[in-house]
């Protein structure tokens, strides 16, 4: 029974209000393409009679027949249940009647990557630093809850307002057991090489420390206003550059030196030399930058 794992989890968490019927969802325009179907803007008519704007991740109607797509849908929902932080996209509920949908908080301004590429000249360095800080706060929450995101990148960092970061896309997220300090990837998935730490590329090991590496690549995307990290290099070439030759992405012109120093720290070769998100949060809490 395909509904079993998802429903039992929803029920176990005591979040029965998570079940939404598709009759209460009125789809609006398309926001983008997710891994298992389209992402739409929608109006959700809640039980209390209020209507709220939401983002809806649809499972393609043909996807139930596609191997793996339903599993991905369940994994993403399971990862989102119980997450509650102002800098993470919140799960509102799921619809388990056709079409299957994940109903979540809307980040109305879209991804920081799209925004930077379209409107870079309107975005001040002070705002970029504020984004860096809020992404760090969201990641520090995940670190405290022992979740490894595995796909942190500017394309997955959304904005609900110009100064309100919402990290999204929890499709690859993994929970670490108390005795584990990393997750060894066994599934065959495309992984985004330019955001990967050397131990991900060499040993498929993902941890808070590899999220930290990806965080610094995300900062690099932000301070270059949306350039492609390691453009023109294959995965093998990137590994050669970062692992054998010790190269790192260059300081973006707009990046304050204190922030570039943080990025280089996050790109330490040894995982244990990289800062925790808890330590980075403390840095952002206390740092005084000249640009601000
Ligand atoms: N694209 C993917 N998820 C989204 C969300 N929650 N809000 C806006 N756009 C999105």
UniProtKB/TrEMBL annotation:
Protein kinase domain sequence ranges: 25-284
| Residues where ATP binds | 57
Q: Which GO terms describe its molecular function?
A: ATP binding; non-membrane spanning protein tyrosine kinase activity; protein serine/threonine kinase activity
Alphabetical keyword list: ATP-binding, Cytoplasm, Kinase, Nucleotide-binding, SH3 domain, Transferase, Tyrosine-protein kinase
Name a GO CC annotation attached to this entry: cytoplasm
Tell me where in or outside the cell this protein is found: Cytoplasm
Q: Tell me what this protein is called.
A: non-specific protein-tyrosine kinase
Q: Which organism is it from?
A: Hypsibius exemplaris (Freshwater tardigrade)
């Amino acid at each position: 029974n395909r509904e079993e794992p998802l429903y039992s989890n929803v029920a176990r968490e005591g979040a029965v209000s998570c079940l939404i019927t598709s009759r209460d969802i009125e789809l609006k325009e398309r926001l983008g393409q997710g891994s298992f179907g389209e992402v739409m803007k929608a109006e959700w008519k809640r039980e209390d009679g209020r209507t709220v704007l939401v983002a809806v991740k649809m499972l393609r109607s043909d996807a139930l027949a596609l191997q793996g797509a339903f599993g991905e849908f369940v994994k993403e929902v399971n990862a989102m249940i119980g997450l509650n932080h102002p800098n993470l996209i919140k799960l509102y509920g799921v619809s388990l009647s056709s079409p299957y949908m994940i109903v979540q908080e809307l980040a109305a301004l879209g991804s920081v990557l799209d925004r930077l590429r379209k409107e870079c000249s309107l975005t001040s360095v002070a705002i970029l630093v504020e984004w860096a800080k809020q992404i760090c706060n969201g990641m520090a929450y995940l670190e405290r809850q022992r979740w490894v995101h595995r796909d942190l990148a500017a394309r997955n960092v959304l904005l609900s307002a110009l100064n309100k970061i919402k990290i999204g896309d929890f499709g690859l997220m993994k929970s670490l057991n108390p005795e584990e300090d990393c997750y060894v990837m066994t599934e065959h998935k495309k992984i985004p090489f330019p955001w990967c730490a050397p131990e991900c590329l060499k040993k498929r090991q993902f941890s808070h420390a590899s999220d930290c590496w990806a965080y610094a690549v995300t900062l690099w995307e932000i301070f270059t206003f949306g350039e492609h990290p390691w453009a023109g290099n294959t995965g093998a070439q990137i590994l050669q550059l970062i692992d054998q030759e010790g190269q790192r992405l260059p300081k973006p012109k707009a990046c304050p030196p204190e922030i570039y120093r943080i990025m280089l720290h996050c790109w330490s070769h040894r995982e244990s030399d990289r800062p925790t998100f808890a330590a980075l949060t403390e840095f952002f809490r206390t740092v005084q930058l000249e640009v601000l």
